[in-house]
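dumping this here before i forget
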Amino acid sequence: MCCAGIAVAGTESDVRTIAAAVDNHYNHLRSLQAEFTEIYRGNGMERTESGTLWLKKARKMRWEYRSPREKLFLTDGQDAWFYVPGEQQARREPFRKLEDLRSPLGFLLGKTKLEKELQGLSLAPDMPPVTSGNVLLRGVPKGMEDQISQVLLEIQPGYQIARIMLEGVDGSVTEYRFSQQKENVSVSDERFRFSPPPGVETIESDFGQ
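structure:
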């Protein structure tokens, strides 16, 4: 790694070196907090949402959306929940059946191995990074081939993931940008548990996208 960014020459060994460095970075973390922006483009529309993300070993995550409206997506590693404050229903699904596009991030801490999770992992020199000095990797998430044609990971110096872009087989694009990343923050397991408010019905659901 050089001072301005990640030094790469475009060979297979470079891809493996970068992937291994990303794996090593996240596998040593116990928790992560970041601000996120989610951008969706597809079906003739574009939607931008933002909020705060928490990740914690093992497979715990909480996506707390604030803009343009509040909503909550979280999992304790067993069950995943989706709830919009004020609505009369909360959706629940077993984590092992979850095919939501956010779910791969649940594996970041503790067991990351990009070469195993992404088929055909390679550099993406044809795609410009959002931030100069960053490097993009591309691959196809295993087990999600019916949904995702490719995923792009933008890696910043320090081997943090700054952006994830998922291209759907339907031509849609879902992009997550991360900022203000705080590593090994103190976060209680209670933050990843959800109890429906009084009067809110629980329905079993397939979140999808």
